[in-house]
Structures are given as C-alpha cells and as structure tokens.
Amino acid sequence: MPAVVIANTGDVPEFEGRITFNVIVCVVIAACGGLMFGYDIGVSGGVTAMDDFLKKFFYEVWERKQLAHENNYCKYDNKKLQLFTSSLYIAALIASFIASKTCSKYGRKPTMQLASIFFIIGVALTTFAVNIEMLIIGRLHLGLGVGFANQAVPLFLSELAPAKIRGALNISFQLFITIGILIANVVNYAAGKIHPYGFRISLGIAGVPALMLCLGSLAIHETPTSLIERKKVEEGRAVLKKIRGVDNVDREYDSIVHACEVASQITQPYHKLMKRESRPPLVIAIVMQVFQQFTGINAIMFYAPVLFQTVGFGSDAALLSSVITGLVNVLSTFVSVVLVDRVGRRALLLEACVQMFITQCIIGGILMKDLKITGNLPNGDALVVVIMVCVFVAGFAWSWGPLGWLIPSETFPLETRTAGFSFAVSSNMLCTFVIAQAFLSMLCHMRSGIFFFFAAWIVVMGLFALFLLPETKGVPVDEMVDRVWKQHWFWKRFFNDEQAVEKREAEMIRPHLI
Ligand SMILES: OC[C@H]1O[C@](O)(CO)[C@@H](O)[C@@H]1O
C-alpha cells in the first residue's frame, strides 16, 4: 500500500555512498508503483460517468440515468457498478498477505515482476472487455497487481534508497498516487469526448506505468537486505557496493547483517505484535487507516464525476471538475511535504479535521436544502459544492492522506515494524473496499445525510487525534517507546507491567527481610 516505506525518519546513521543511478531507479520504481495505484483509483469513477461505458456494461444504470423523473441520489445505486470499483481492493487485500510471503521467500524483485504481470493482464482484460464478467475479472487482476506492488515497492525503496532521502520517498509515494489520480482524471476528461470507445482508452492507459514497472524491474538489482536475508551474503555485499557507488560499504553491510540476525530471531513477529506493549502503535496504525478512509475521501476520489453529475453537472463538466479536485489533491500533498516536520503531525491532522468537518457539513446542507429528489441544483449552489469539495480534498491531502502512512511507519519498534505495517496496509484496503462498495447505496438511502455521516466520523477522529495521538515529529524512530509512548498520559499504562511486577515482588520480599 501506499507509502509503505518503512522510513527511519529519526537519526539515521550516514553510510558511505553517492547518489547513484540506483537512486534514480528508486524514484522511477516509486513513481510506477504510485502511478499504477493512483491511476486505478481515478479511472473507475471517470469511466462510470461515461455513457458509452454504462450502455455497454451497465445498461440499466444508463437507462435509469436518462429518466428525468429518476431519483437523483439513486441514479447510480447498482451493486454490480460498485463491484466494478471495489473488486480491485478485495483482491489487493488478499494479495498483500501473499505478497509479504513472496517478498521474504523469493525477494522484492520477483514480487514486483509478478505485480506488473498481473497488472498487464488486468489492463488487457478491462480494456478489451466484452462483458461485465470479463471486466470484473480484469479488475480482480489489477487488484492482485496493486496488492503485490504495494507490498514490494515500498519495501524495495526503504531498503535501497540512501538513508537521507528515505523519509522524502515515504511521502513521495503518496504524491505519486495523487499524480496517478490526476492523470486518470485528465485522461478521462479527454477520452470522454471520444465515442464510442473513449472509456477503453482510459482503461488501457493504465498499462503504461505497469509496463514501466515491468521493464524497470528487469533493470534493477535485488536489494542487499533481501539477498542477505536469504543467505546470499556475498552477492548482497557486491550489490551493495554497486548501488552505493563506493568500495567501502562495510558499516552498512554490517548493519544489514545485524538487522537480519535480529529479524531472524523474531520468528513470530505477529505473535509479538499481539503482546500488550505492541498495542499502542498497532491501535494507532489501524485506527489511522480506518479514519483516513472514513473522512469520505474515496467517496470523492472514486465517485467525484458521478457525484458532480448527481448535483446536476453534465458529463463533461463533471469530468472537468474532477480534474480540478485531482489537481488540488496533488498540490496540497506538497504542502504536507513542506510542513510535516515543521508544524508537526498533530497540528496538521487537527486543522484538517476542522476544515473537513465544515466542508462536509456545507455540502450536506446545500444538498439537503436545494437538491430535490429530481431536477438539478441551482448553478450557484453547484459551484459552491465543487469549491467545498476542493477545500475538503486540500485538507485531507496535507494531513490524513500522507500521515495515515507516515505515522504507522515511524511508531513501531524494529522487530514488529514490517508485520505491524502490513496491518496498516490491509486495514486500508479493507476500508477502501467497504467505502467503494457501499457509497453509492448509502448516497441513495441516506441522501445528503451521507455527508453528515462522514462529518460525524471527522469529529471522532479529531477527538482521537486531540487526546490519543502523540506527537512524533523529530523523535528518532528507535526512541519512540521511551520518549513517546511511556510519556503519554494514556498509552504509558501499556508499558508499566514489568515495573509493576518488580515493585510487587519487592513488596512481597520486604516483610521477610525485616
Ligand atoms: O489521495 C487520495 C488517495 O489516497 C489514499 O487515501 C491512499 O493514501 C487513497 O485511498 C485515496 O484515494
């Protein structure tokens, strides 16, 4: 999943090494992984809003859309249409579990190659789909690709990137996701004008980042960590020399060997993760993902064109409006890159909650007041809705979007970091699936109330951030336990067991001594 880079954002030791060709390869691979995922997030909503696509695969939805008296909120309420979007995420969820095994057993490189192959098959099936079955099977393949890539690419990056750019790469992965979404929005806007096969162009272009990943993964080296972990020690050292561009890599090599030794002693990281002292970072990792998705962001990302049509925009204007929200998403993610280490995580998250709460309430309020069951919103109102969606997306993109990934990547101790992170990834996929599958039905049944539903979640996450989320800005990752968790008014209780036992034992011994 996005930004699964296990970043060491604290005091990272500086090892010998130049910015070599390898660094460029890292960025290209990060870009392919992020673009592949982002493009798929953006493309589904766009094609769903295209009449040619609906006529071909979801005729009843298209027919219903044509009826002027049809209920605005329910035009798109169709289980199969939702399955078209959501099927990808359920496949990705399953694949991410398998991928964590293939990554350790066979390496990061073959896992990425596998991802690109699944992805290319998925692109071919969706682009040339002749019926809905072929379309959904194609989406499932894309999901497998996304699941494998989202596990392997960030791991590859965190192991290969020089330490000093590791943190930046963490957010850049999310940045590439947003760029992927934007590209999909632009392609949809252009392809929507090409009849009758414009939607096939939209679906087919997803193959570009997949092909790049496929070719890119032929050119790369397996990571030294993965080689050493699989006992190919000499090859690991040779690759390290090559990618760092210097001969003296002893210190980094020793540190990788040491890390692999430590990791091999933890035979059951998942077991360790269930221990009491792992609870604070685990709860934070899962809850950050649930909250990230329950801001309602993907209701917008997947269904923005549909949503804009619901409030009365024509197909073209709706696709153009989503290009605008896509652009806001990219630009605001840059804001996060600049601010996250200056103002801190909590300030960004809390500010965004206020911003997202207000915008969701305004959108809900306008729809409740002015969007009748049939007919359109007055023009002025529709414009306010688009502006509010942009303000909402901006708030999300500089806070819960990237920080949903950054915080779990920096709060686990080394021994449970990867295992803990896989919980974050799968929670994200699961919640994304739920929103993709449920949103259009919720819109139909709850009408404008859906925006108040998300607003209520935003209040809950704001309170959570206020009281339960510790600030991690500037804290070295390996000092989290002492400097963050043990100092926190609530989470410290999870670390007192040992001391409490010692104290109790001392008290029991004392009377005998007297
Ligand atoms: O930029 C928005 C996108 O970012 C994510 O939250 C991933 O971090 C996606 O679920 C969403 O579509």
Automatic annotation (TrEMBL):
GO molecular function: monosaccharide transmembrane transporter activity; symporter activity
Membrane topology: Multi-pass membrane protein
Major facilitator superfamily (MFS) profile domain: residues covered: 26-473
One of the Pfam families matching this protein, by short name: Sugar_tr
Keyword Nucleus attributed: no
PROSITE patterns: MFS (PS50850), SUGAR_TRANSPORT_1 (PS00216)
The name this protein goes by in its record: Major facilitator superfamily (MFS) profile domain-containing protein
Source organism of the structure: Salix viminalis
